[in-house]
Amino acid sequence: MTIKTKGAIYWRMTRLTSKDYQDTLDLIYTANRCHDIDTFIGNVFPHLVKLFSTECVTFQLLKEYHWRIEITESRSFKSDYHNISEDKVFPTIYKENYYQQSPLLKEALTTAKNVLKIGDSISYEDWEKSDMLNNFIRPQQLYWELFLSLRWKNHLRGMITLWRSEKKPDYNNIDIAKAEILVPHLVLALNNSMALTRMNTLKKHFSSGDEVINKGYLCLDNNFKPYFANNKAREICFKLVKPQFQNASSIETCDIPVSLSIIDDCSELLHSLSSGELMLLSKDRILTGNGGSNIRVECSMIWKADSIGSMPGFLVTLTDLTENNQKFETIVKTKFNLSQREMDVIYCLLHGMNEEEIAENLFISKLTVHTHVKNIYKKLGAKSRIELYQKIRLFSSQLK
Predict the structure, then answer these.
(1) End-to-end distance of the chain based on CA atoms, in angstroms?
(2) What is the value of pTM for the model shown?
(3) Residues near 227 by beta carbon (within 8 Å), at least 6 away in sequence
């Protein structure tokens, strides 16, 4: 995090009372200790209702495509001032796909803002006239909206919307300050909770060999010793160590070599905790493994114990980028009956090259390039480079 970003965050903190700040930290602590997605939803969202004095909190997980979004899960919590209940059957706030009309969602998809509110993204006058407010929101005795964008690696993965009735005041600068501090922690806690949920599923099939997954999940304790690794993590870990270890036999489940780079990143995270750093986000880097493979390594802290004084462990997510590229190429070539030279042209198109630049890079004539491009568009059913990009991005997202 840059000094400028830190300064902005500390400036926001000065507007919070000690109780506001403590309540915000308590929610961050609660979110970081969630060990699966159900715990995350069940523990965090009732706290959000209280922290922001809302009548309703809605939550959606998204799958974002270039031209549309798809909701994969939605939940809704409501408060009647005495208790908080969840609508588990069908959250009425989501009826008839209202979210597609949301002006705050539309801005979240086109900007990098994490916290949005009525009055900033849409004028109060336009909000009063909107079908979304009058047909969907007001009938549920709600009016004011504060929107939290849950972005992971520049992609909108989910959203939390805080709703208040018209009888209550609009969200103020204190609410926005608390939300801006919370959002990066909630994103990280959500990502970890989803990964731990997948890991718990993997553990059930670990011994049977039924595991089919393209990411490696490795858990380390606070002494950096592994206590869980799925098959993909073990495979990738051996790519990150010296060649003489690659053919080791009779390896126990977690008796695997952990790269010093991974330990260094985990050590830095642990140091940031003891030094009182405000933003305890993940460490992310790309390492070069044996055979020239490129491995993305993401390390983040996780809490599982109930004791407040417990030390965190570490969740390490490992992705073999070289393997993903090969899988992507195989799927696209097979589905559309593309030649290797046509795949080469596609890669050049996706990098923004014109036909003359493609010809120069591939050592072929411009006429040959033009012929390849026509064949590619025909095979993929695309009429332009934009349509080609959309189709390729869709296939790429399906491999993640």
Answers:
(1) 26
(2) 0.56
(3) 219, 220, 221, 254, 313
Q: Mean pLDDT of all residues in the chain?
A: 76
Is there a single domain that holds both residue 90 and residue 180? yes
The range of the structural domain enclosing residue 164 comes to: 3-193
Domain count of the fold of the chain = 3
Q: What is the mean pLDDT of each run of 10 residues along the chain (400 residues)?
A: 40 66 85 80 85 87 65 76 62 54 79 85 86 82 89 79 89 90 86 73 49 72 85 86 49 68 88 61 78 81 60 84 70 82 80 79 86 90 78 62
356 with 229, same domain: the answer is no
Q: Can you give the CATH number for the domain in which 90 is found?
A: 3.30.450.40
Dist CA 400 CA 75 (whole Å): 24
Residue 332 inside a domain? The answer is no
Does the residue 69 lie in any domain?
Answer: yes
290 with 155, same domain? no
| CATH number of 215's domain | 3.30.450.20
pLDDT in tens, 75-117: 888 776 656 777 654 455 555 455 667 788 878 877 778 898 8
**Tens of pLDDT along 343-381?**
888 877 776 678 888 888 777 888 999 999 999 988 888
Residues 35 and 184 reside in one and the same domain = yes
Same domain? For 21 and 156 the reply is yes
